[in-house]
Amino acid sequence: MAQRNTWQRDRVRSALGDAQGFVSAQDLHASLREDNTGIGLATVYRALAALAANGEADQLQSPEGEAIYRACASEGHHHHLICRSCGTTVEIQAHDVETWAQRTAATHGFTQAEHVVDIFGLCAACTARNRVPH
Fold first, then answer.
1. Does 98 belong to an annotated binding site?
2. Does residue 83 have a known ligand-binding role?
3. Any known ligand binding at 126?
4. Which of 7, 9, 35, 119 is packed most tightly, with the most Cβ within 10 A?
């Protein structure tokens, strides 16, 4: 069943597009609350789930286990490099990972294999800020 497009979903989509990097539903809700939109947290969760299901948003799990979202800049399957400090995100293609995943699945008799690979680290700017002079 197709979901109707509501002004609330449009506003969540817009706020997600304005966010820097990946954000949690709670953080996005706080941003919407600051703008006095009247959009509730449950609505934000539903809208983000719909956007992710439609391919309009990337959804992944942070290292802490929280679902985080980002407006999708690429179509199709891709991976991310994500800075743990500032949230800078780079969408990447990882052909070696694709080959490895399919080969590993086939070795074990699996078909229609899917995978999620996201790499968390520190971007160059955060690494430079964290360096301590000797």
1. yes
2. yes
3. yes
4. 9
108 among the known binding-site residues?
Answer: no
| 3-class secondary structure, 62 | coil
> Strand order of the sheet with strand 57-61?
23-24, 67-71, 57-61
pLDDT single digits (tens) 80-116? 888 888 888 888 888 899 899 999 999 999 999 888 8
Question: Does the model's pTM come out above 0.85?
Answer: no
Q: What is the DSSP string of 2-17?
A: PPPP-HHHHHHHHHHH
Which residue ranges form the domains of the chain, and what is each CATH number?
1-73 (1.10.10.10), 76-134 (3.30.1490.190)
The answer to the question of whether 64 is labelled as a binding residue is: no
